[in-house]
Predict the structure.
Amino acid sequence: MNPMIAFIEHLLYTHDCVIIPHFGGFVLNTQDFKLDDEQVIHPKSKWVAFNERLQSDDGLLATSWAKENGISLKQAFAAVHQFGQTLSAQIKADKQFQFGNIGVFQVSKSGRLQFEPNQLINFDLNQYGLMPVGIGQAKKKPVLQESPVEKSAVDLPTVQPPVKRTRQNQFYTYVLMAFFFGGIAAYYLTEPNSRYVNSSFSPLTIRIKKTKPAAPAKIAVIEVPKKEVVATVQEEITAPVSGGIFLVAGSFKTEAKAATCQAELVAKGFENVQIIEKQAGEGHYRVSVGEVADFDAGYAAAARLKTEKKLDIWVYKR
């Protein structure tokens, strides 16, 4: 075996990746405990995969080779480089190459390099000495089989006993119909004639003549002259309410915005819309939709406008 191959195998026990420059790299993959179909438990293991794209030299193989053999780094890098070229040429020539205990290299029909790892070697030192353990055959539950049932050669038809139909229902139907029609006949036969009166003492029948009602006497109507009553209606004179309490709908810093609000309220149907001029010390122009005598009337008007016009009002006293 080439000493470089044996050294790479030794490095894989302590490193997860070993790269051969300009050839490829060996990468360890971890496999957890598993139970196969034969009820054998295999311990946790690390197996090797080969990645041909790992071409750059990380220096691990060269520096470890220099320490192992006591040579300079320059000599070690040259030896590693020479090993990679020789290995690549040998695999292409032989089409198959056994790389120590790690695995086997092959060249496919398309010229691609393939690697088959050795599944029997475990590179996980923590599992050293652990072997696969069988736990015996799994107990299978007994399967119950149905016992065969003999069937008769000829299936006899089922015989249903004849059902005796009684005429009891028809009897009750006829009885109810007899009572129904008998009652109707008795009603028409016993109903007295509205044009005759039968006496219980005389067998004679007395006819009652229908007389026409007498015409009502005419009553003379004497017209009494009515006196014209002239009612004097006193017009209520309502003076405009002036209590200094306003129903304010908006407050603005500029008079132009207050005028815009006034125009919008007038367009909505409010008549007594006015702009309250700001006094000394005040910073806003207020737009009022009315004036009331006291606060109670103001609160009532504000609630009414909130309900009817959807307008928020606050009561303001100048």
